[in-house]
Amino acid sequence: xxxxxxxxxxxxxxxxxxxxxxxxxxxxxxxxxxxxxxxxxxxxxxxxxxxxxxxxxxxxxxxxxxxxxxxxxxxxxxxxxxxxxxxxxxxxxxxxxxxxxxxxxxxxxxxxxxxxxxxxxxxxxxxxxxxxxxxxxxxxxxxxxxxxxxxxxxxxxxxxxxxxxxxxxxxxxxxxxxxxxxxxxxxxxxxxxxxxxxxxxxxxxxxxxxxxxxxxxxxxxxxxxx
Length: 226
Prior knowledge:
single chain; about 230 residues; four-stranded antiparallel β-sheet; 4 helices; elongated; signal; Collagen triple helix repeat-containing protein; Collagen; collagen
């Protein structure tokens, strides 16, 4: 009996050992050893970027500079200005239609600075080629037709007053008796700067032998056209 129990006990232990080698899900047989991990395949090339993210192409070469176009035509020359040099100007005014005992010429060249500082010489044209300086004690319009002429210079105005010779009585002139007025403005520097004034210029011209009553001598002195 004892031998029988021992056989049964051994049998049960064998069964128990066998059962411990079974899986939970009832698979039979022991789990085999884990196989080696296979070699990872090479990574394929990346796909091409879309158009929006495309790789910029190489920068092209700078194009050659275009040829310079031909120069434009010169513009039309402007009208000649008044005669003058660096510091002398001349202005001409038509008097052929002027009449009366008092004649006022509008002269915009007579600015306040010019009136106060510059030397202003006036000449009346007679017989188309003779310039007589004014003011004048006796101005001959013709045979036995003389006048005294006084002047007054103001801002933008050059006044001429005609009198009977030797009196203070006005004497009217008629249209056509006068031809033209020529003004010569000789610039002088302001006396406040300690430089030459119009009186100094007049004195210098006389010391150089220039007769300021002679229009042509004045023009020659400043190398100006008549």
